Sequence to fold (189 residues):
Amino acid sequence: MPPQRAELMRRFLLHLQRVDGNTPSDRQASAVTTGAWLFNLLCRRTTDESMKNVLRVCAILASIFLLAGPHLTLGGDGSVQQELKPAKVVMCESVQQSGPVNQAAVFSIELGRVTCFTEFEQVLQHTLVRHKWYRKDNLIAVKRLSVAPDRRFSSSSMQLRDADKGPWRVDVTDADDNLLATLRFSITD
Fold:
C-alpha cells in the first residue's frame, strides 16, 4: 500500500474509534465526515462511474450505522437489530394521553385492573416487546406489543379476580426475549 494511502487509512481508523464516544450531535457530524472520507479513500483511483455509485452507497450506509451508534447491531441472519433501552417502566392504574396514571407498587383488588407502562429512550424502527405477567412466579400471560419511532411507549393490563391477591411481577423483554426490566408489585384487599 502506498504511504499516502496507508496514512489516510490510519487517520480514518482513528477517526472511527473517536466517533462512538461523542455526543449525538458530534456523532452526526463525524458520521458525515466519515462517509466522505470513506468515499474519497475508495474512489481515489476508481474511474468507472458505476463503481463510484456503488461506493457512494457503501459510504452512505457506513454513515447511517455510525449515526445509529450503539442502538443498532447486525443479527446472526444479517438483519439490523435494535437495542431497546427503557426510559420509564412503571405499574399504574391506567394509561391516559400516552402516560401512566396513579403509579404504585401496591394495588387494591377493588381496582379490578392494573397496567404495566413502558416507554423507551429511542426507537429507530418498528419492533416488538413483550410483557410477561407472573403471579407468585407462575407465568399467567404474555402480551405482545409493538413500539415504533412515532410511538415509543407500550402498555398492557391484567384484569384482577379475588384469587389474584399476592405478589406479582412483569418482565419486559425485547423481540429476542432479552430481559429489559422487571417490575414487582402486590395486589391486596
Q: What stands out?
A: The radius of gyration is 24 Å. Confidence is low (pLDDT under 50) at residues 19-25, 70-79. Residues 3-76 form one domain. The chain is about 30% helix and 40% strand.
